Amino acid sequence: MARAVNRPLIEGCVDSYASAAAAVAGGADRLELCANLAIGGTTPSPFLFQQIFQELSTPVNVLIRPRFGDFLYDGKELEEMSKSIQMFRELGANGVVIGVLTPEGTLDRERMSALMAQAGDMEVTLHRAFDMTRDPMEALETSVSLGCRTILTSGQAQNALEGKETLRQVFEQAAGRIDIMAGSGVKKENIREIYEHTGIRVFHTTGRGAAEDSGMRYRKSSVSMGLPSLSEYELWRTSQEEFHACAELIHSL
Questions:
Q1: Which of 21, 29, 115, 202 is the most buried (most CB within 10 A)?
Q2: Whether 130 contacts 154, CB under 8 Å
Q3: Could you give the angle at which helices 240-251 and 191-198 cross, rounded to 10 degrees?
Q4: 123-126 and 150-153 as β-strands: parallel, antiparallel, unpaired?
């Protein structure tokens, strides 16, 4: 039996157990598990995956991204990605989220094929490397021919609302052959507008609320351990209430 395409679905993008639990309680149909969302996401710890997989009853797709930055990978990075896919497949992941580009800004068919072969019967989502390609329609057709299950995209814009016209065009060309999942900046305030313009019913969101204050009482304001633009004393997590509001909207489409 052919699988349903474009059925209402909300995927929670999470990088901690706390966020995963909040998304599941809020109605997530699936999780995308990452590390380091502040830099766009990287491959998560297998131990975090096991906590979530064993304790939360929601399918988990795992981001496979060895580092911050572009999607042009060398041989050692590709070897690391392949081994990571093998590991998460053996641990029971529902799917993997991958993307590899050529220097010319096209989807790298050869290297994507090798990673997908490692994935076996897991679901494969092409992540927002799609948004960095020269020609989204060409990338769409390559994704379909490779056998990807889903494309996660903002419509090649800073967020999905800004990219809604390209999202509409990609969704129409996809014509039910692959799920187009709108992601980046998806909030309860814009889900219906994106849907009404594009027809897309599959959405990806962190469902974040306001930043939570750290429990640290002593604070060293003169030193930063990471990005200077981010406070060491703020925690960004999924809000169950925000996620639930998004899920209710999407499940009603």
A1: 202
A2: no
A3: 30
A4: parallel
Distance CA 185, CA 162 (A): 9
pLDDT digits (tens, 9 = 90+) for 121-131: 999 999 999 99
Rounded alpha-carbon distances, angstroms, from residue 98 to 17, 91, 101, 116, 142:
22, 17, 10, 9, 14
DSSP the chain: -PPP-S--EEEEEESSHHHHHHHHHTT-SEEEE-B-GGGT-BPPPHHHHHHHHHH--S-EEEE---SSS-S---HHHHHHHHHHHHHHHHHT-SEEEE--B-TTSSB-HHHHHHHHHHHTTSEEEE-GGGGGSS-HHHHHHHHHHHT-SEEEE-SSSSSTTTTHHHHHHHHHHHTTSSEEEEESS--TTTHHHHHHHH---EEEE--B-SPEEPS-SS--TT--SS-TTS-TTEE--B-HHHHHHHHHHHHT-
Query: Both tokens of residue 147?
Result: 């056998």
Task: Find the largest Cα–Cα distance for the chain.
Answer: 60
Name the token pair of 228: 């200077």
Q: Which residue do the tokens 């313009």 mark?
A: 197
Q: What is the pLDDT of residues 72-124, one digit of tens each?
A: 999 999 999 999 999 999 999 999 999 999 999 999 999 999 999 999 999 99
